[in-house]
Amino acid sequence: WQMFRALQLEWHYDKDEILTFYLNLAPFGGPIEGVQAASHAYLRKSASALSHAEAALLAVLPQSPSRLRPDRFPERAQAYRDKVLRRLQQLGVWESPVVDEALIERVLRSGFHQPMTAPLLARRLKQQAREKGVARLVSSVDGNLQARVENRVQARLSALPEQASVAVLVMENVTGLVRAYVGSADFFSRRRQGQVDMVQAVRSPGSTLKPFLYGMALEQGLIHSGSLLSDVPLRLGNYAPENFMRTFQGPVSAEQALQLSLNVPAVGLLQRIDPGVFDARLRHVGVGLRYPADERPNLSLILGGAGTRLESLVRGFSAFARAGISIRPRFEVDDPVVERRLVSPETGWVVGEILRGVAPPGGYSNQVLRLAWKTGTSYGFRDAWAIGVNSRYSVGVWTGRPDGTPLPGRYGAMAAGPLLFDIFQVLPQAVSRWPRPSGVEREWVCWPLGRLERDTLPEDCHRRLQAWVIEGVVPATLPNSEQASWSAGRRFYWLNPASGRRLLSTCSTGQRVQASRVQWPFELQPWLTERELRRMQLPDLDASCPKAVRLAQRPALNIRHFDDSTRLLLPKAEQGGEVHVRLEAVGGSGYYLWLVNGKVAGHSAENGQLDYRFAQPGQYELTVLDGDANVDKVNIRVVR
Fold first, then answer.
1. Cross-strand partners of 387
2. Cα–Cα–Cα angle for 412, 417, 422, nearest 5°?
């Protein structure tokens, strides 16, 4: 049978190929196959650095790998090695002085040393080699850099729970070559499930997809970096997103919303772009998302309601360091280069510049590193992420439990952010900065309209701030999701130029001219200053119009039945545990918006009522706003 197999090999392969197979696949005891692996395991050096005595030792081991293992039977292994040396001398392969010197060298018993550089990557490449039908693959990993990254991971391990793991991927931006690959915290740890490769695992990305969303919104001309967005309570059907800290900021710029990772503005932007379009665009650049069974892309995906891989996120984030073009991680030096455009160079630079403004973890500085980075935390603290790029490297860090068990309180900025900065500190320093594309300019813009300050009348510029503008495109503030009349914009009215008072459109008495006042989005009014609210209000009605006289006599906006001394008593749990009240306002005009502690409680028509339930004791601020930006507030206390 062996003779037949030998002839079969001769028919299919030449001598060099057969020798290559032997050198890579010959058994050397235990799990070791191949000369290179045996050299590292028994002698702790590369096969190219072997002495004559060591080479003879490895030559004899495949004859009886288990009986001649030098880590277990050094005397027996030395005896067989010496036979090989003398045979080589007899055949004239090696001269006598060489053999005599080799015979002096003893085979010492040493602990079995199995090289463990990137073991999960090695396992991955071995599987790929089988699929390709090749005997040898060359990894892209830099051994020295891998060791430094592994050391940083080990240094952080003591701060992690016993059953938590870590994954790190370091990719070179220019080539896409993966220079360090840490698939788990400890390959041999069962408690940490160390043989589960978390670089490839599909996990919830938390908020790490938000930079892609803002990039697409910039690319489509929906926003600029200083655009006014609303971080207020939002309900879309049964979906009501909240921020991580369960608070709301009110009016924020797009830059602030991304840096603070606010959820409500992101959901609003995704609603405009469309979840399906967003998903398709990410897939195009290699950031594939997976959804629960029978689910399609929806608004929750921007907050982590889908699954993706660490290597996919690193691939996508590389676009912010590569002029808007992502590159697929290359785990072998012979892997092809695959690039995809995510956004324009200008948009990629702006998103990167925004992410460079994200506050670093406590105790770290970003002045020298200049990282563009983003964190993410999945629902229930199951995954903590930190993805960062500089001009030279893209790095991804994941921490969590491989089995998906929550780790309460361990969020991205705390659990993964410090390790990300640790790793960048041991990487070769980036020599180039981030040159700003010629199509990007720094401009002053005005809120609430969102236009350039130089194109805005002084009385219409309630707040001014700087923004990055791409190719001179300065989109106006987006209307709210319901396209309501309270969106940021102008409210037009008729004005009596003689009295300076407002006329109703039905009044035909005297001369009139059209005028306007800029309006903030209605839902932002609780966060505005008194001065900003006054600047929104329309002039009083002119008394020359009979109907205006009747309207002018309307009382001021006022919350009925409650004042600052109101105390409400919660019933016992067996009696329902909630107190039901009816919110009612009088005066003012038009449409009422009710808020309880800054959160939208509901809307009511003019002189309408709103039913509300209090379930917990505490201090509550009731706020009502009308269509003319009039406001009334009272503070009540609910007690048990």
1. 374, 396
2. 155
Q: Which residues of 138-174 are buried (b: 16+ CB within 10 A; e: fewer)?
A: ebbbbeebbebbbebbeebbeebeebbbbbbbbbbbe
- Block residue for tokens 């509300």: 612
Pairwise pLDDT comparison (8 vs 266), residue with the higher score: 266
Structural contact between residues 386 and 417, judged by C-beta atoms closer than 8 angstroms:
yes
SS3 342: coil
**423 C-beta neighbours (distance < 10 Å), count:** 25
Residue of 234, 218, 216, 229 lying closest to 277 (CA atoms): 216
Task: State the CB neighbour count (10 A cutoff) for residue 592.
Answer: 23
Tens of pLDDT, residues 546-584: 665 555 556 778 888 899 999 999 887 766 678 899 898
The answer for residues whose C-beta is within 8 angstroms of residue 565's C-beta and 6 or more apart is: none
Average pLDDT estimate for 602-619 = 81
At 419 the three-state DSSP class reads helix
In tens, the pLDDT along 285-344 reads 999 999 988 899 999 999 999 999 999 999 999 999 999 999 999 999 999 999 999 999
pTM of the model: 0.77
- Coil vs helix vs strand at 511: coil
Domains in the chain, CATH or no CATH each:
2-104 (1.10.3810.10), 116-200+310-335+358-437 (3.40.710.10), 440-470 (no CATH), 489-552 (no CATH), 558-639 (2.60.40.10)
